[in-house]
Amino acid sequence: MTKPSQRAVPTTTPDAVAAHALAHAWAQVGAALSPHPDCPLPDWAGGGDTLHQHLLVIGNGGDDDPVSQLCYLETAAARFGKVGYVGPASVRRLVEWSMGDRVVVLSRMPRDVSDWDLRCALGSLARTLGPQATHAHAGRPFLRVATTAARHWRDRLAAAAQHGLCVGLAGLDTLDGMPRTTPPLAPLLGVPGVSWVPLGRPGVFARDAAPPETVDWIDWRADCDDLADEASLIDNLDLVIALDAAHAHMASGLGVPVWRLSATRLTTSHDDDWQATPFPCRRENSPTLADIGAFRLSPSSEDWPGVVNAAATALLAMATEFQGWTR
Fold first, then answer.
1. Are residues 98 and 173 in the same domain?
2. What domain of life is recorded for the organism (predicted)?
3. pLDDT tens for residues 35-83?
4. By the 8 A CB rule, do 88 and 59 touch?
5. Which residue of 66, 164, 208, 313 is most buried, as measured by CB atoms within 10 A?
6. 113, burial (CB in 10 Å: exposed 0-12, middle 13-18, buried 19+)
7. Domain that holds residue 83
8. 110-150, pLDDT tens digit by residue?
9. In terms of domains, do 308 and 162 share one?
């Protein structure tokens, strides 16, 4: 005869049933309000013993600057037993190149999430990891491109560029709100010895649909299918002048010298606060870049002509160093 179980049978009270139903209802509300209601995983709030847990990082197509957040995937990979990333197709290939086997890149949200323990939005990852994660990546490149892709753009630049100094120009759409009486970039584009490579969405630059004929304007924006293509092109440039934060982050993430140009200041930077940080030129056979780490325009009140003129003066000095250099 089998001995009856001695385990006590729990009694369910009406209050307990109501509390359970309320908790379940709140969980459903929280899931519905989350950016990804189809993902039932709990949000990671930071901390805890996570070395044996799996974290799913979720990117959002509405993120303004996803590139600046990718560096934190590396930190998360060191804290978790496994880290996955699911996000827009435009970002996935760059994540694969940059993170390698440290991060599993998924093409879509998995239907079966039993292999994952926690989730975290890409835009919240830095805050969740804590301030130490931000300091760990300050001034250090975190993006990588495939050798074959980099060689492709290098060969194209070598064949197309008329000058030794190739400069990317990003964020041209920010000029559309400027008064038409203000010439946006004429002093910059007038610097001799520069081959310009516009970056960003094709067809942008409404104010100046076509630059002057004297400008070596190499427009390959339509050939970049995703951020990985654009990063491979930027990796071959000598300098990026960015009017937007997204391309400034991409250039600095690749270790490419970058100037952030705005109506109030011009800085060389890597972090979100745009502190001046010099980037060495990585080509051993190219001229030494000017020390742009200390180059900063004093803040002024919407002094756009002053900003552009200061940038043009610095660029002229750099172009002089590149005279006679071929790619």
1. no
2. Bacteria
3. 555 688 999 999 889 999 999 999 987 676 889 899 999 999 999 999 9
4. yes
5. 66
6. middle
7. 49-137
8. 989 999 999 999 999 999 998 877 776 666 899 999 999 99
9. yes
Report how many domains make up the chain.
Answer: 2
Query: Using CA atoms, how far apart are residues 154 and 16, in angstroms rounded to an integer?
Result: 67
Q: Does residue 23 form part of some domain?
A: no
Check residue 285 and give its pLDDT.
35
Same domain, 159 and 246: yes
Query: How far apart (Å, rounded) are the C-alpha atoms in residues 39 and 113?
Result: 8
233 in the same domain as 125 = no
**239 and 305 fall within a common domain:** yes
Same domain assignment for residues 84 and 201: no
Over the stretch 263-321, which tens digit does the pLDDT of each residue have?
544 444 443 333 333 333 333 333 333 333 323 344 444 577 888 888 999 999 999 98
Q: What is the identity of the amino acid at 226?
A: D
- Classify residue 5: in a domain, yes or no: no
Instruction: Tell me, yes or no, if the pTM score tops 0.85.
Output: no
User: CATH code at 236?
Assistant: 3.40.50
Query: How confident is the model over 186-206, as pLDDT tens digits?
Result: 899 999 999 999 999 876 554
Select the more confidently predicted residue: 11 or 158. 158
